Amino acid sequence: MIITAEKLSATAAALLGFSFMHQSATAMPYRIPHPIVASESLIGTQSASSDSESEIDEIRLLGEANYKRMQEISRLKYGWDGNMARPIPASVINRTKDLLKLLPDGAKVFPTGRSTIQIEYHKDADNYFEIEISSKTYEIYSVKGDDEYEGNVRKRDIVNRVKHFLA
Amino acid sequence: MDETFAPDERLYRGLHSIWIDDDNSVSSAAFKDSNGVSVDRDGGRAEQDCIVRLVDNLPQIEGVGRLSCQDVRDCGAFPVYLPIEDNDYHSEIHDSADQVQIKSKSKSRKLANKCQVIFKNE
After folding, report:
1. Digit-coded pLDDT (tens) for B35-85
2. Which residues of chain B neighbour A133 with C-beta distances below 8 Å?
3. φ/ψ (deg, to 5) at A138
4. Which of A96, A91, A143 is nearest to A118 (CA)?
5. What is the pTM of this model?
6. Which residue segment(s) compose the domain that A150 sits in?
7. CA-CA distance, A135 to A90, in Å (whole number)?
8. How far apart, in whole angstroms, are the C-alpha atoms of residue B36 and residue B16?
């Protein structure tokens, strides 16, 4: 990666061991005779820092248990169920994470042998809510006493349905 | 082996640990498989033999669930005897006589509720 002096911020310059003589807008920019080649270790440090920030955000938004569960699901390899289950597609994992970030606490997450992920809420034996996420659809199944419902839903309707179930 | 199942014949489902909840309940996700739900029938064997064979042959699984053929039928699903090259006891639970994949979530949940975890590798 090549950084010219014009593009180098004061902070980055300081990290690389340079300092600016003038800070005013009219001042001549600090010039160095040759482009600076930023060290890989510096780039690595910046990248690792932003990675860990996004990881912390994700743990906060998903909850620690579901963050770990999603990590586990993303590591499942072909035949993980002892038969012919395929790895869960990245699109399904991302759709599930996006949805989990919007949902109330208490969700439990499970992969299926048909390349989908399901999110479950259990109140008791007679009250159950499930969302199955594929790469294209969201399907819900709910049992509330004697009422049972199963069908496709739009993503934007799911949160309200879960809240209604939990109320 | 008899092609048909007696109502009290037991079926054993290999369970990935991710499907077994802390209270030993089984997620209905364990009964959602596009290729049919694989099980081993008891075929007259002792339960211990059925468990050992499943666990030895499927290193990925960490639990074994049990349900009877009558349980499967009560849930509206259909047990099918489908022996494979290295497993004479291999069978599958299908949606019906005509459809392999259990698409009804209600059916999958009923099967999960009937499935009793009898072995867990902890």
Report:
1. 999 999 999 999 999 999 999 999 889 999 999 999 999 999 999 999 999
2. none
3. -120, 120
4. A96
5. 0.81
6. 61-166
7. 9
8. 16
Q: Is A85 in contact with B33 (Cβ distance < 8 A)? A: yes
H or E element that contains A148? strand A147-153
Indicate whether A90 belongs to any domain.
yes
Q: Is A63 left (phi over 0), alpha (psi -120 to 50) or beta?
A: left
User: Best residue in B39, B105, B109, B119 to probe A by mutation, most A CBs within 10 Å?
Assistant: B105
pLDDT digits (tens, 9 = 90+) for A96-136: 999 999 999 999 999 999 999 999 999 988 899 999 999 99
Largest CA distance in chain A: 79
Closest to B39 measured CA to CA, from B104, B70, B71, B83: B83
**DSSP per position, B47-58:** HHHHHHHHHHH-
Domains in chain A, number: 1
